[in-house]
Amino acid sequence: MPSLKLxxxxxxxxxxxxxxxxxxxxxxxxxxxxxxxxxxxxxxQSQPQWQKQALQDVLVKLTGGEAVFAQPGIADALKNSGQxxxxxxxxxxxxxxxxxxxxxxxxxxxxxxxxxxxxxGPRRPDVLLWLTERPVExxxxxxxxxxxxxxxxxxxxxxxxxxxxxxxxxxxxxxxVNEAASWGGDWxxxxxxxxxxxxxxxxxxxxxxLTDASGLVQFRLTWQQLVDGGVxxxxxxxxxxxxxxxxxxxxxxxxxxxxxxxxxxxxxxxxAGSLQLxxxxxxxxxxxxxxxxxxxSMLTVRDHQLTQYQAGQAVLQLQLAASPDEFYRALxxxxxxxxxxxxxxxxxxxxxxxxxxxxxEAPAAENPVTSPVQxxxxxxxxxxxxxxxxAGGQTDPAVAAESTLPLSAGQNSASAALVISSRYLFRxx
Length: 429
Hints:
The protein is of the alpha+beta class and 429 residues long. It has three domains: 17-32 and 267-426, no CATH class; 38-114, no CATH class; 126-260, 3-Layer(aba) Sandwich (Rossmann fold), CATH 3.40.50. The protein is built from 13 helices and 15 strands. The protein has helices spanning 8-11, 15-28, 47-63, 74-79, 105-114, 148-160, 171-174, 179-183, 187-194, 241-260, 285-296, 324-331, 381-391; strands spanning 38-42, 85-93, 96-103, 126-133, 140-141, 163-165, 201-211, 217-227, 230-238, 274-280, 301-310, 313-320, 337-339, 369-370, 423-426. It is globular, with a radius of gyration of 24 Å.
C-alpha cells in the first residue's frame, strides 16, 4: 500500500495543526481492524511453536480461513515463521499467561502477493446479528453479553477478523420487532429495526436444541439472511453448542473473503491501470489529509495524487494495485465516502500506454486548476490552488441531502449491486 506523501505546504503547518490532523486520521480509521497483524498465543510453548501459531492466526485473518495452509509456499513460510515476528510481550487474559505477538504486515503481504493468494484488508463489513433462543417453548432474545453462545460468537469473530455487533434490544428495538417476529423470520420488521445500526450485513440467528429417537441431544443454530428480496437460510447442527459459533463464523468469513479479498498486482505490473475520482466536501487541510489517508490504507491503491482542487472539491488520480472491480468492492466499505448518483462510472486508464480517458471528467469549475500526476515533493499547481483557497476562506459547495445513496435498511452487501461512480461525497466519521 502506498505511503502518504506530504507536499511542502503540509510541512509549513504549525505543530498544533499537525497534531489535530493526526488525531483526525486516527478517528477516521477507527472502523478498521487494528490487530490484523497481531496474535495472542498461549505462553509456555517453545519459541518455534508460538511463532508458527502466531503466523497461522494472522494468515487466517488475512485470507478468511484455514484453506490458506494448503497453498504451495505457505508450508515453507510456517517453518521459518520467526522471520515475520516484529515483537512480542507477555500478557494476561482470563488469568492465563499469553504472548501478544506483532508480525511484519508488509512482509506477510508480500508473501501472499508473490503466491498470488488474495489478501483481505483491514476494513471489514459490519454485521448485525439478531440472536434469539428457544430454551423451552417461548423464544427470547439473547440480551446478556455473558450468554455463552454470544461470547463464543465474539471470540470466533476475533479469530477470523469479523466485525460483529448485536442490537441494543432497547425500547426502540422492542417497538419495531419482538421475539416472535424474529423467530418467525419476519424480515419486514427486522429490516425496520436494523436500519438504525447502519450495518453492511444483517443476519437472524435462531438457537435451540433437538433430541433424536435415540435420546441424543443436538444443538441447532439456524441463520437467515435476506438476499435479493428472498430469505436464505441454513441449519448448523452440533453436539457442542459452542462449536456452532465456530461453524457460523468460519462460513461467514469465507463468504466475505471471497467478496473482498484482492489479488495484489506486482509493483511493476501496470495492467490494473488508474482512475480519476472527484470528492465533494473536502473543505479543509485536515479533510484532505484524512481523505488521502483512506487511500493510503487500501490494498487496492498503489499510489494517489491530488490533481485538481477548487472550493470544497478535490480530484485525485489513483494508481490501482488490483482490478477496478476489486477496488470498488473495497471502496464500498469506506463509510466516509458516499457515491453520487449523477456521476458516471470512469474507465480505468491503462498505465503502461497512458492512453484512454475516464468516461466522465471531473465537474467543470469556472477556473479549475489542474496538474499532471507526479510523485515528487514539489508543490503542484493543484496543491497551490488548495492552499490559496483555504487561505481565502472559501467554503464547501452546497450538496443536496437527497444526492446520496444510502444502503437500504437490512440490505446485505452480498446482494447489493456494486456501485461504480466517478464522484463521491466525503464526510469524516
